[in-house]
Amino acid sequence: MSEPSREPLRERAAEVLWANWTGTSTVPSRALYPHQWSWDSAFIAIGLRHLSPLRAQLELETLLAAQWGDGRVPHIVFNDAVPLGAYFPSPDFWRSTTAGRAAGAPADVQTSGIVQPPVHALAAWLVHRADPGLSRARAFLARLRPRLAAWHRYLLESRDAGGAGLAAVLHPWEQGMDNSPCWDGPLSRVDPAEPGAYRRADLAHGAPEDRPTDADYGRYVRLAADYRDRGYADVTGPDVTAPGAAAGAFRVEDPAFNALLIASEHALALIEAELGGRAAAARSYGHQVRARTLTRTLVARLWDPGRELFLCRDLRSGELIGERGVTGLIPLVLPALPSGVAAALMRTARGPHFGLGGTARLVPSHDLTGAAFDPRRYWRGPAWFNTNWLVAKGLRLHGERALADGLRAAMLDAADTSGFAEYVHPYTGEGCGARGFGWTAALTLDLLYAGRDGLFEGAEGKPGGAPEEEFAEESAEEGWGHE
Hints:
This protein is mainly alpha-helical. It has helices at 7-20, 38-48, 53-64, 91-94, 96-99, 120-130, 132-137, 140-158, 172-175, 184-187, 214-229, 255-275, 278-302, 339-350, 385-397, 401-418, 438-450, 468-478, and strands at 36-37, 76-77, 168-169, 252-253, 303-304, 309-310, 313-314, 383-384, 423-424, 431-432.
């Protein structure tokens, strides 16, 4: 049902998406982010499906057309009509067509060489469900399925740097929460690039006190340049501290990145089931098993029962990183998460560290009580719409419907009053960063049209998961838990 009082909000959100549409994809922000970003496009497609299922399909098709031969989906697909100086790092920094040749970078489009969280199969499934007839007529899922499968294969094989089965990120930009305090420890090992070696275009569009520091930005540049200069080669297995390991200074297993990979494995199982046939049925079963296995591995590797939160693991030290970030709440989206773990996560979300339903209007990106918390600085405390959308879906999945409804209402109010801001102050809802931001507008539409729907829309029950009792028994028998 529509919400008549929200009709102006619906119309303004649509205007943002139309204004950011380039003809084949949607930019996050015309001023600050004038190209196509990977996980932005996935979230944008989820909202865009309510306005134009065809455009939502094109959004994902355009992104995946820039996939590399090794399966990676680059985090930026550059628009060659945009001047080089409009954004840094620009195509002449990444040099994908030359530095990425051995990894199969496309020759006809410039991209970055790193990745972002794999939300794409989930987005593809939701886009299909918006208009199954159009999707089938265009063979949308049939054409995307091999690319999505190759993308997951790349992450599960080439990025298994810890040797335990989880995908590792090798740059904070890959995890998406670029400036999180969770990265401070691993980043401290990286020598910043010389200030004269790059120009920060972001400071022309945002207050310096809201953006990453120069020292941290220099570390981001150094990591990206080192990876490029190694031909974007990945290292698998546990020995990432060996001399010469490609970009080995920063190797982290992140709970949100892997939870989204697992959620997309569930979605791939549904996609295969939709496509039908004996081979597809076998692949669907394989994705279900993989999602269940990865969920157990996630709990074994990254769950901290003392903090009642998933934590990042620094693969250089082998230790869990003690910082509490919103990344640790995102596994709530997983259907096969043990009920005890889900209940603990919901306690943590309501507790003093995140303040949901209490002191905070929206879930902050970092621990409200932490020494590093900053309510305005990029990913060090502000609330973001994509992470709040995921938390709301996870709360609903695990039975906290009233809390999910309250978060949904708070998100709609913040989007309305902030002009669809990139992120907001978690206590006041005051807008920060860019305005008219793509995924904020898109997820606002999704909250208006499908805000009370389950994450795996169109699926019966919990896709790909074992019954919770069976999962709990196996976990106890096999010793799953904090290492």
